[in-house]
């Protein structure tokens, strides 16, 4: 009995659950399509329909509840809606009234428009009537003009007037007799004028060819002036920008626009040509005249393109190119103004012929052996090309021919500058340059950024370089200028990279090679090598100026070449050559020192007396070192000065050790060692004093010249030691004798015989201390022999 109610309750609960799902979906605004599809697929649409109805009833109940709760608001909203309706009616009435007024105003305007159109129509009719009257007046006026021109011998306007009458008015002349007279006289007049003007045209052909050179020169000169103005303007602009960027001050520059008469190059008379062409046009024989004109001008061009072998091309190239320029300027004017006398194809044919010949001429100048001549020809050809480009001619082939000569030009320029560099190096005295006034300082130092201080020095000023440095810089600057001049205004829009490459090649292959040849020659001395090393340092510094100067001439912003990667390879090469100069200097110094150290052969190695004031050689060595380092201090930078001092003292140290090893020294005693010790003390005192007086002690706080004498000092200390056998103690050896070599020590110790030559001296002078030191030395000799 209870089973059915339970199932009903369960069913109701299930329906309630499904209704809840359905209500949730509807409330979320989700699509019910999948749910409906599923119901039909399951065959239970009635159940879904029941659920929808059930949900609908629930919603209706909710709506009724909501309406009961907010019925006052609904009533108020309806009242407001009615108010809006009344306002809408009023707005509609106002719109209807405004529309009526607009129609009234528009009707009046339409009437005015119709009246305006009628006025325009009347005006058009009056204009047509005036035009017809003017035509009638023109016919009468042309007849009067013809009589006047013909009576005064003005055949061209007369013939033009006849042509107008013949073409436009002859058939409309109402008087038959007059018409017949005019028809009869026109051919006779044309024949007379044709003969006269044909003669004038042939004279004009001769005259225009003779004038072509002047026309071309004038046009090219005008182009040269324009280029110069542009370059000056760009230079002013560049300087102003650089000064502004550097913060020197506020600078303003303006572009000056001048009124230029661009037509002055075209002041040549084409009237005979126009007349002749017009006559043949009137006669219907213009094609024959075109052919006649073209053939004659082509013959003239071929004649102008012939280069005379009797005169060097460098003397005739301006006339050659000016003549051709004038010819094509005339042809351009004829093409543009003659009304079809020449065709563009005919001019193109003539131009191709001329370009082929000019290119051949430029390529055939192999005998030209001067960079200056090549530059002059190139500059004039670029002006020629720039001039004719203005008239629409294609000049790319000419610029390519010039570019093909680029390598030859730079080779000639390199060779010319090489000879100048060799001359400068050969004539240099390699003495520091003395500058007596500020103008010379400006020209020789500031111009190439060689100054070591920003302040102006007192005069006379002794520069740290010789005269070859500014002279070489001037040659390099002229090379840059020559390279830029050749590469500018040609096929290379940005010539800086090519100029930089050529500059690098010049500095490495010419300047650096010449310096190396000078360094490696046997004619230079120590002071010269020292000055060459100092000169190379300043040339190395000047490479940055050369890069900036090249960029400036090429119109490249200076800031773009101040990056480290923009520097020249030559800077590194010059640094290497400077090191080679230092090596050559050290070799010369060492050779000179060897001459003085050779005096050690005169030392008495078995003397019974100690040389308290040093041996004979040491005074010569100290005098030379004083001179050397004083000169180096004036010329060389501190690092180079340190190198020279270290090298010289180290060589002296090696020479002292070598003196003990010399085969001629069979034996030596303690007195000789004490004498060498005194020499070494003098050297050490000199080294300390010089290291301090030259200011190197402030730069290299942990260094000293004395350290270069370490091997000699340790050897002397060992020989004078009371216990020389301690040399074999690793700890003591590392501390006191680290610079000594086993084999050298063994050889030297074998020669050390610490006893006088006489037997009585041996018995009387030997002390216990000497005996102990001798025993220790014998032990050292034995142990070194065993070790070896």
TrEMBL record:
Q: Which UniProt keywords apply?
A: Coiled coil, Cytoplasm, Exocytosis, Transport
Kindly give the Pfam families that the UniProt entry links to this protein: EXOC6_Sec15_N (PF20651), Sec15_C (PF04091)
A GO CC term? Answer: cytosol
Residue stretches making up the Exocyst complex subunit EXOC6/Sec15 C-terminal domain: 398-751
Q: Does the keyword 4Fe-4S apply?
A: no
Where is it localised?
Answer: Cytoplasm, Cytosol
Instruction: Kindly state a single biological-process term from the GO annotations of this entry.
Output: pollen tube growth
Q: Which residues form the signal peptide?
A: none
Q: Where is the Exocyst complex component EXOC6/Sec15 N-terminal domain?
A: 51-220
Q: What's the family? A: Belongs to the SEC15 family.
The record ties this protein, via PANTHER family, to: EXOCYST COMPLEX COMPONENT 6 (PTHR12702:SF0), SEC15 (PTHR12702)
Give the protein name, as stated in the record. Exocyst complex component
Q: Which organism is it from?
A: Rhodamnia argentea
């Amino acid at each position: 009995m209870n089973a059915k109610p339970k199932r009903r309750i369960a069913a109701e609960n299930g329906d309630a659950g499904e209704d809840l799902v359905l209500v949730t979906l509807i409330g979320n605004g989700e699509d019910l399509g999948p749910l409906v599809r599923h119901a039909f697929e399951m065959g239970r649409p009635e159940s879904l329909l029941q659920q929808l109805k059930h949900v609908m009833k629930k919603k209706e109940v909710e709506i009724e509840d909501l309406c009961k709760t907010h019925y006052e608001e609904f009533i108020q909203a309806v009242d407001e809606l009615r108010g809006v309706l009344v306002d809408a009616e009023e707005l509609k009435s106002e719109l209807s009234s405004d529309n009526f007024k607009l129609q009234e105003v528009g009707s009046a305007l339409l009437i005015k428009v119709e009246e305006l159109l009628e006025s325009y129509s009347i005006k058009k009719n009056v204009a047509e009537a005036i035009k017809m009257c003017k035509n009638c007046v023109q016919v009468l006026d042309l007849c009067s003009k013809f009589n006047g021109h013909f009576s005064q011998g003005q055949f061209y306007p007369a013939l033009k007037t006849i042509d107008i009458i013949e073409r436009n008015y002859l058939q409309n002349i109402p008087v038959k007799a007059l018409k017949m007279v005019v028809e009869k006289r026109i051919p006779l007049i044309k024949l007379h004028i044709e003969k006269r003007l044909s003669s004038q045209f042939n004279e004009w052909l001769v005259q225009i060819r003779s004038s072509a050179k002047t026309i071309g020169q004038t046009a090219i000169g005008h182009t040269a002036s324009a280029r110069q103005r542009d370059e000056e303007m760009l230079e002013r602009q560049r300087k102003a920008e650089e000064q502004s960027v550097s913060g020197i001050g506020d600078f303003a520059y303006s572009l000056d626009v001048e009124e230029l008469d661009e037509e002055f190059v075209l002041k040549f008379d084409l009237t005979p040509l126009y007349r002749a062409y017009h006559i043949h046009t009137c006669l219907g024989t213009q094609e024959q005249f075109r052919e006649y004109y073209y053939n004659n001008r082509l013959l003239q061009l071929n004649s102008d393109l012939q280069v005379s072998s009797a005169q060097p091309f460098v003397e005739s190239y301006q006339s050659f190119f000016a003549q051709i320029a004038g010819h094509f300027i005339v042809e351009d004017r004829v093409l543009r103004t003659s009304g079809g006398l020449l065709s563009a194809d005919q001019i193109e044919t003539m131009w191709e012929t001329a370009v082929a010949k000019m290119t051949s001429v430029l390529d055939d100048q192999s005998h030209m052996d001067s960079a200056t001549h090549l530059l002059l020809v190139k500059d004039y050809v670029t002006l020629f090309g720039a001039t004719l480009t203005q008239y629409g001619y294609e000049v790319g082939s000419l610029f390519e021919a010039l570019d093909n000569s680029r390598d030859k030009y730079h080779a000639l320029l390199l060779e010319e500058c090489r000879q100048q560099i060799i001359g400068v190096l050969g004539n240099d005295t390699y003495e520091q340059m003395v500058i007596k006034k500020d103008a010379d300082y400006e020209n020789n130092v500031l111009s190439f950024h060689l100054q070591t201080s920003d302040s102006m020095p007192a005069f006379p000023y002794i520069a740290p370089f010789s005269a070859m440095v500014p002279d070489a810089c001037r040659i390099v600057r002229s090379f840059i200028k020559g390279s830029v001049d050749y590469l500018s205004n040609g096929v290379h829009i940005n010539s800086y990279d090519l100029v930089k490459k050529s500059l690098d090649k010049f500095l490495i292959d010419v300047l650096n090679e010449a310096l190396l040849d000078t360094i490696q020659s046997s004619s230079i001395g120590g002071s010269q090598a020292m000055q060459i090393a100092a000169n190379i340092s300043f040339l190395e510094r000047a490479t940055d100026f050369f890069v900036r100067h090249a960029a400036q001439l090429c119109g490249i912003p200076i800031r773009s070449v101040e990056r480290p990667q923009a520097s020249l390879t030559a800077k590194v090469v010059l640094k290497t050559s400077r090191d080679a100069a230092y090596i050559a200097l050290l070799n010369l110094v060492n050779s000179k020192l060897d001459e003085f150290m050779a005096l050690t052969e005169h030392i008495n190695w078995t003397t019974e007396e100690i040389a308290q004031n040093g041996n004979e050689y040491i005074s010569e060595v100290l005098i030379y070192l004083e001179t050397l380092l004083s000169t180096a201090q004036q010329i060389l930078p501190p690092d180079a000065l340190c190198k020279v001092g270290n090298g010289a003292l180290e060589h002296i140290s090696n020479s002292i050790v070598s003196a003990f090893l010399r085969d001629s020294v069979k034996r030596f005693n303690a007195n000789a060692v004490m004498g060498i010790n005194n020499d070494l003390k003098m050297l050490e005192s000199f080294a300390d004093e010089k290291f301090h007086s030259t200011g190197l002690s402030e730069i290299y706080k942990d260094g000293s010249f004395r350290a270069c004498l370490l091997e000699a000092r340790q050897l002397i200390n060992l020989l004078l030691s009371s216990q020389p056998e301690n040399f074999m103690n690793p700890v003591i050896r590392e501390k006191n004798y680290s610079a000594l070599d086993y084999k050298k020590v063994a050889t030297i110790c074998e020669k050390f015989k610490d006893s006088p030559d006489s037997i009585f001296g041996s018995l009387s002078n030997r002390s216990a201390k000497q005996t102990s030191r001798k025993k220790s030395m014998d032990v050292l000799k034995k142990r070194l022999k065993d070790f070896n």
